[in-house]
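Q: Convert this sequence to structure tokens.
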Amino acid sequence: MLAEIIRWIRELASRFAPPQPCPVPVRRAPSVEKNNSRNSRGLTAPGGSSSPPSTFRGLLAPGYYFSARRTPHAPRRSPPSAFRLPPSGFTLVEMLVVITIMMILVAAAATMMQPGTESRRTREAARMVNVYLSSARNRAMETGRPCGVIFRNFGTPGFAMNADQCEVPACFAGYADSAMAKVTWPNVNNNVVYAELTEGPATGMIRRGDVMQFNGQGPYYAVADDSENDLDENRYLKVAKIKLTFDSGQIVPWTSTETLVPFRIFRAPMKGAATPLQLPASSVVDLYWSGSGSGYFGSDSAFTSSVNDVTILFSPNGSVDRVYTGTGYINVTEPIFLLIGNRERVGVLSDVVSPTAENKSKWMNWQDLETGLWVTINPHTGVINTEPVGSSNGGMPGDVAAARGLAAQAKGMGGR
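A:
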């Protein structure tokens, strides 16, 4: 390639160069000839009437003599420098010209290939997430215990570049069979009750997001905390008095008087032994705009106020058991949508712009019809699919609910 470019440059330069005079060929005058009888050029063979001078006799090979006759030809001369052949190598100027041309071509090719490269990275990221979720679902069905995937929230507004498979540890009911909890409802006007363990703090066992149940029946209560001072360095509760929350309108049997009852704590999923998932460079799971049904995780104030991971848990029958986000969990009945896109297109609700051809660089991932993808999960069957971000708005993105609706119906446009 390099040699062809330099030869092309030389041919181009020769077309515009001034014509050069053709040099007159110079005939070389022979000085030594093969032994022969006396010839017309004046050479004398050995044994003839003439003999070479004794001074040069030892310098010649047998059968050759110097001619005594003066040669009529001019002595040998080197051709003028103007007529010398060019060297076989490359000059510094030629090398610099070729390097400059190659750099221009590489830069132009990289610019043209950039959209295709970004699309391939996003497709590969969606494929990896799909396979990782399917592996967790299969493990839950094989082991008979809930398993899932934790998407590690990297920061505000909420996106994940890696994930871990998780398993649900055994429930905790105290260190002894006689373990009990004192339950009280100090304020009947709010949705908070407190349970104090009679055995004292359960070090390294209970953390925010766990679920507590009393008497082996009745409603579930989500474990919370009053402040960061209630947590140790691993974010486990280090106090015996546990704050519990419940849904509005839920009927509870507690009063302001302490009631001593047995308990069970269903612990939140913990990281398993499977190899972590690392997405390709610049590709992320846009957690802010991911969610279930028409809702999205970014609308949860508990999710946006701090860096919280998102966990999707599968039950042993293959369906989705629950989704952990923020400070608790949700039982999902509508499809789950995980948005796969580019890190530069992650943004909050206030960053959304009305899409036009001029502000295309400011579009969100759910507006990107070229590279954005949805990984959808059916909560009832656990079936996982990948669909492109679509639009029914004449090639321009609509709202996030419409894009999810098309993904649920597998009617996306672009992307894959």
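The CA atoms of residues 370 and 415 lie 4 Å apart.
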